[in-house]
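testing teh design pipeline on a random one, pls ignore if ur not involved
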């Protein structure tokens, strides 16, 4: 099964985290296309229109040939490129899984200790999320409400798609 990983390309921490996700999924036998890892960073202010279009067409072709898309929505707001990629995936009838590690996107009723290591939360042990996640309605629609918070949840969701 072929997975397309859409994510913000803003900083090294994102790159390192999503490279770990790629390695995790590939270790389970999935083929993962990660534009940042597989194409490299394209700096919009330093490239030509032809280079931008080549990147766009390459991404569209990889979305077209994937079986499922995993889209990271971490950050101040969903990344514009990630939103474009998820829209293309949706238009091509690809299942889209939203992936996030941020508190504001946790599902109501989630035990925070099930998502974050205990040492990250000494002041709030065994806290449960009491509000609905603050996820854009369009992204909820594109993903049919599928939101994962751990690598294991992503893998289990992909497996359950039975593609």
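output:
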């Amino acid at each position: 099964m072929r997975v397309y990983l859409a994510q913000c390309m803003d900083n090294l921490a994102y790159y390192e985290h999503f490279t770990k996700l790629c390695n995790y999924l590939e270790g389970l036998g999935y083929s993962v296309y990660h534009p940042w890892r597989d194409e490299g960073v394209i700096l919009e202010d330093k490239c030509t229109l032809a280079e931008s279009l080549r990147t766009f067409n390459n991404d569209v072709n990889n979305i077209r040939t994937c079986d499922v898309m995993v889209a990271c929505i971490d950050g101040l707001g969903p990344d514009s490129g990630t939103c474009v990629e998820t829209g293309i995936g949706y238009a091509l009838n690809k299942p889209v899984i939203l992936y996030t590690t941020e508190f504001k996107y946790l599902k109501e009723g989630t035990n925070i200790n099930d998502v974050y290591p205990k040492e990250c939360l000494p002041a709030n042990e065994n806290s449960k999320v009491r509000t609905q996640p603050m996820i854009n309605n369009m992204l909820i629609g594109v993903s049919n409400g599928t939101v994962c918070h751990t690598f294991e949840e992503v893998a289990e969701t992909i497996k359950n798609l039975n593609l």
